[in-house]
Specification:
This protein has 70 residues and is α+β, with helices and mostly antiparallel strands. It has one helix and three strands, in the order E-H-E-E. The protein has a three-stranded antiparallel sheet with strand order 1-2-3, with helices on one face. It is globular, with a radius of gyration of 11 Å. It starts with a strand and ends with a strand.
Length: 70
């Protein structure tokens, strides 16, 4: 199973990240997916992503998780 992030707007609706967003890798583990989003969250926010939700295949693991700094 692959771990992926769904990009969402502030209202939770799915959004496409802008062209400057880093490409999302196919992460083989939850840890890999979490590490990746931890490295690029600022770039995702700048590309129009307000929050993300983590999925393992079709199963929602957790989220939404806002990308705005507290």
């Amino acid at each position: 199973m692959s771990w992926t992030w769904r990009y969402e707007g502030p209202d939770g609706s799915p959004v496409e990240a802008g062209p400057d967003a880093p490409p999302q890798p196919d992460s083989p583990t939850q840890s890999d997916a979490e590490s990746w989003v931890g490295e690029v969250w600022r770039e995702l926010l700048a590309a129009g992503v307000a929050q993300v939700t983590l999925f393992e295949g079709e199963r929602k693991v957790y989220g939404p998780m806002g990308l705005e700094a507290p």
